[in-house]
User: Fold Ribose-5-phosphate isomerase A from Methanomicrobium antiquum.
Amino acid sequence: MSENIVNSKKNAGNYAADLVIDGNIVGLGTGSTVLYTMERLSYRIKEEGLMIKGVPTSYQTAVRARNLGIPLTTLDDFPKIDIAIDGADEVDSDFNLIKGRGAAQTRERCVAAAAKQFIVVVDESKLTKKLSAVVPVEVIPFALAVLCDKVKSLGGNAIVREGVKKDGPVITDNGQIEVDCDFGEIDNPESLETELNNIPGVLSCGIFTEFKEKTVVIAGNATGIEIL
Ligand SMILES: O=C(CO)[C@H](O)[C@H](O)COP(=O)(O)O
Assistant:
């Protein structure tokens, strides 16, 4: 990762952490940008006595939060939360998102849906006019072929994500399979999201179009941030 991208992620992540106030229940997204948010929250907890609880969106985030001394809670205890901070793989000009590079989009969707405010932290290279990144989809193995068939009928190409230090498919935190679906440029993200999420056996695809009204995008650059 270039120094520019690292600084851009850091600037966006840090800015988002400073939006959190005492008493907040905070959705903690997954990925490298949110890690900067969590590091800054950890600093604020230790140095400023900030009192918060985090709801992690993945196993990795839970481990990182524990190591950073961020107290954790669950959606069982707080079905409604104050603010969720999460990264994205692509953000279009209407605030439609593609998420799920980390295969965490199902829990990320649950946490974003539960939040009053959804803060998306990205480096500015993630901003695009039109979504065109690969769309991750989490599916139960029983429905894998059905999903692949449906993706084909929608003009896409589905590839089961392979593990890096494991042979075979990536098994998600929910014990399911992650499938990367390439549709090229996406003309209608809302309808594609609905089509994919409605396939029986799909837990969640990585297109997020329904949180626009509560979304603030913080796009980091090498020297600062832009709020969109
Ligand atoms: O959706 C995600 C994980 O499932 C991440 O939020 C997204 O991939 C962005 O990650 P990063 O901040 O590392 O670029």
Observations:
- The pocket of ribulose-5-phosphate is lined by residues 29-33, 86-89, 99-105, 108 (CB under 6 Å).
- The first strand starts at residue 25 and ends at 28.
